[in-house]
Amino acid sequence: VQLQASGGGLVQPGGSLRLSCAASGFPFSRSWMYWVRQAPGKEFELISTISPDGRDAAHAASYKGRFTTTRDNAQNILYLQMSSLKSKDTADYYCTPDWGRTTMRRGPGTLVTVSS
Predict the structure, then answer these.
(1) What is the pLDDT of residues 15-64, one digit of tens each?
(2) Are 87 and 11 contacting, i.e. CB atoms less than 8 angstroms apart?
(3) Measured between alpha carbons, how far is 84 from 103 in angstroms, rounded to an integer?
(4) What is the largest CA-CA distance in the chain?
(5) Percentage of the residues of the chain whose pLDDT score is greater than 90
(6) Distance between CA 69 and CA 48 in Å, rounded?
(7) CA 71 to CA 63: how far, in whole Å?
(8) HEC sequence for the chain
């Protein structure tokens, strides 16, 4: 299983970023997918979940109206469009098919830093 998140970087408060996650080695198009993040010194936090066909996406309360999750099953890519970013959004961001399981497979993640 390979999960390669990308698109992170330094952004000013109020700015936007789009993260991508290229997946391989498992049946991506048949898998629920999740974006999660881990802020420095904190536990993993669920951001969003999206159904295998992409029709249903849900976001945790902190992200509703700011973040949008989509997927491209033809390319095996998961996306996270982030807007109105805040300093508290600074974290490493990961995609995973395993939220809530004993072992959460994930790649190296992509760092988002929100700072002026």
Answers:
(1) 999 999 999 999 999 999 999 999 999 999 999 999 999 999 999 999 99
(2) no
(3) 32
(4) 40
(5) 93
(6) 7
(7) 18
(8) CEEEEECCEEECCCCCEEEEEEEECCCHHHCCEEEEEECCCCCEEEEEEECCCCCCEEECCCCCCCEEEEEECCCCEEEEEECCCCHHHCEEEEEECCCCCCCCCCCCCEEEEECC
